[in-house]
# Entry
Amino acid sequence: MTSYQDYLAILSPPENICNYVKSLKDFSSQIIGEFPSQHAKPHLSVQFLPRKKPVWIEPLMPKLERELQTLPPVELEINGFAYFDQQEFQTIYAKLNSTPATKLWFKLLRKFFNTPPFEPHITIARNIPQEDFKILWPHFKDRPFNARFIVDKLTILRRETIGYDKHYRTYKEMPFNTRLNFQEFTKAKLKAPVLPVGKVDSQQINLF
# Structure
């Protein structure tokens, strides 16, 4: 395979939460009609890697798998809904409780991809016009949605950059270290003294 591929690293909620989010997407489409993310599988995006050749990405996978073994499965909690204000378009999403522990965990995960800070979330309706947002948001503004769940692996999806099939398919599933406890791990890290930042390894290959 030599053609360019788009890669997407995600965290997947359990099936019961995915099914509920899908029902919210279906409900939304009944209110405002079809929208871009209507049929996307519920997930938390970590990193989008557009237009990469497999020969660039494949050699990096063993290193990433080893790095992910330094992290425990993450414990997350959904608490209602919010939206990203994008001027002409808006995105409604299920928001996650942000705690010192989850902030630390995502910070450590981002280092493996050299990704800037982002707000972990599960998209409901992405990039909908203002007119549709004004109609749909009242249905979510005060709607309760509380759920706790654990994510025990990172999934990397892949699709052809240029081609008729724009659906992502699973490329790799990489587990976190189940021998590590999330609460104990983050508590110990948060108490650890801050060390001075050393020199960046200029030899490190960084496609992420």
